[in-house]
Amino acid sequence: MMDKKHVLKGALSIAQVSDSTYKEFQKKSEELIQKMNTYMLQRPDLDKLVGEKNVIMMKDNHANHVRFIASMLKNHNADVLLETVLWVFRAYRSHGFATNYWAAQLNGWMAILNENLSPDSYYEVLPYYEWMQINIPMFVLLSDEKLEATFSMH
């Protein structure tokens, strides 16, 4: 059975990217955000993924995502990565985002990064996205536990 320690171990195994990859990601960040917003807005199931009237929140998430990933590319910190992802799962789910949103979003990011980053940069950044995608079920489970504790009377 996987647990939080196992997920953290995976995050610890992600290598620090080169400075050139960080700079390329940073330089293209606004373009990446715009392409991701366009990609998600074209989905016929968008309302089911983000909930009604949450498109602005989704766009904010995409901008925050790029800024956060850039910070991780600059200074990889597995603990911060894991805790931030769990916070995002709790916060956005409490606003009506479906757990399937992250699979759709991460698939989009991987395609957009593959199309817009140099091959070297893409393959350095890809482990972050693979780690997030593989661990979606664990993020859901761990964020469920925290959500339940938050609303518990004990």
Give a quick set of tags describing it.
154 residues; mainly alpha; Globin-like; 9 helices; globular
Helices, strands, pairings?
Layout lengths: L3 H9 L6 H9 L1 H13 L4 H5 L4 H20 L3 H17 L5 H17 L2 H16 L1 H16 L3
* Mean pLDDT over all positions: 92
Provide the number of structural domains: 1
What fold name goes in the CATH topology slot? Globin-like
Structural class, by secondary structure, is mainly alpha
Radius of gyration: 15 Å
Distance between the termini: 26 Å
The helix-strand sequence is HHHHHHHHH
Poorly predicted regions: 149-154
Percent of residues in beta strands: under 5%
Global geometry = globular
Question: How many strands appear in the DSSP assignment?
Answer: 0
Strand count, sense and barrel status of the largest sheet are: none
Could you characterize what this model shows?
This protein is mostly helical. It has nine helices and no strands. α2 packs across α8 (119-134) and α3 (29-41) runs antiparallel to α5. Residues 149-154 have low confidence and may be disordered.
Describe the structure concisely for a colleague.
The chain has 154 residues and is mostly helical. It has a single domain (19-149), classed as Globin-like, CATH 1.10.490. It has 9 helices and no strands.
